[in-house]
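Meet the record:
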Amino acid sequence: MKIVHLMVLEKFIPSFIKFINDHFNPEEHLFIIFGKPRTKYGMDIKVKNVLWLDSKWKIFDLLKFLYSANKIIIHGLWVEKLNQLLFIQPWLLKKCYWVMWGGDFYFPQKQSKIKKELIKKIRHVVTYIDGDVDYIKENYGANPVYHKCFMYLSNIFDENRYQKCEKINKNELWILIGNSADETNRHEFVFSKLKKIKNEKIKLIVPLSYSGGEEYKSKVIEIGKKEFGERFVPLTKFLSYEEYLNILYNVDIAIFAHNRQQGMGNTIQLLGLGKKVYLNRDTSQWRLFEDLGIKVYDVNGEIDLSINNEELENNKELIKNFFSEKNLISQMKEIFRYE
């Protein structure tokens, strides 16, 4: 195996593995997933070039693959045991490419000492958000080689995904709030911004089935019901991919008040669909969209329900041309090539 991928099973991993096997030589890629084999998120556990390592894995189970690999691609620094292994095997870091996710490096005070050192020393990083690379330089003293790549299909806009979606006949504006039950969504802050318009014809769609703790989730539901009554619709059960796409398709406005880079897949899809999106101006994705000429709105200002169709149509075109499968394949070829 020339390229070894190290990962945990997340919602966009199964489609990533399939995409690689469909567009590149599967014999050149080995996907090592930490955890027991699961069919979650539509994962096919019979894929030949996938190896599962449960919680009892030993260092030697992994080293034989890492030593023989030309490149090691780490999909998020989530496994502390792996971080420790790479820390004591620094020669492996020269061929490691870290795909930056966000939660694995934001808020340095919450990260382990070993992870901090690893981020400082890792040679190659993969992202498409310049601000995230600047962040690890400023906060960790890192100085990596930066490879631009969208990496996952959630970051690609393809109109064909929405062919089976149906427009819902509704007489209110649907407002999507956040992308998960993670506290970084700042739900209470958003609710406070929306109090002024709670008597308007609106419906608040609030995804809470992914990430976050039960206590925080219950608190969000309690406040949402108290302030907005039937206008508040929490999504507490994990939806199928098709069901979630249909919600994005029917949303009119999205509000992402994250205090760090987060929810990029959702944001890209919504902008590509021509939806009005509010973001926190102090995040790295704000800078990305601004640099691309894409119009997003500041969540720290007033929430305005009006829609400027000309701006949103321009956003659609810019998203479609930049976040494309063609660009993704080109970026991947550059990362996968042998030097």
Residues 88 and 114 are 10 Å apart (CA to CA). The chain has a mean pLDDT of 93. The two ends are 15 Å apart (CA to CA). The chain is about 35% helix and 15% strand.
